[in-house]
């Protein structure tokens, strides 16, 4: 997979991350809150079935891919 093109600010952040210059400022309470929020967001407790055309499904999949979903 080709590397994405980064703008100068993104490249600077990547270099800082890779060199270990960046440090997390999350405290334990905030980390726990974010962990629980992520857990809740990804719960799959409902199931639905829908029928759509192949063309519409492909369009939805293409859009999801573009948006990183």
Report on this structure:
By secondary structure, the protein is mostly helical. The chain has one domain. The chain is 57% helix and 0% strand. The protein contains three helices and no strands. The radius of gyration is 19 Å and the shape is flat. It starts with 7 loop residues before the first helix and ends with a helix.
Write the layout of secondary structure elements.
Blueprint: H1 8-18, H2 28-41, H3 54-67
Describe this protein with a few key phrases:
69 residues, mainly alpha, flat
What is the number of strand segments? 0
* Helix run count: 3
The fraction of residues assigned to DSSP E strands is under 5%
In which range does the helix fraction lie? Answer: 55-70%
The biggest sheet, with number of strands, parallel, antiparallel or mixed sense and barrel status, is:
none
| SSE arrangement, N to C | HHH
The figure for the number of domains is: 1
What best-fitting shape do the alpha-carbon axes yield? flat
Low-confidence runs = none
Class per helix and strand makeup:
mainly alpha
Radius of gyration, whole Å: 19 Å
Query: Terminal Cα separation, in Å?
Result: 17 Å
Mean pLDDT: 89
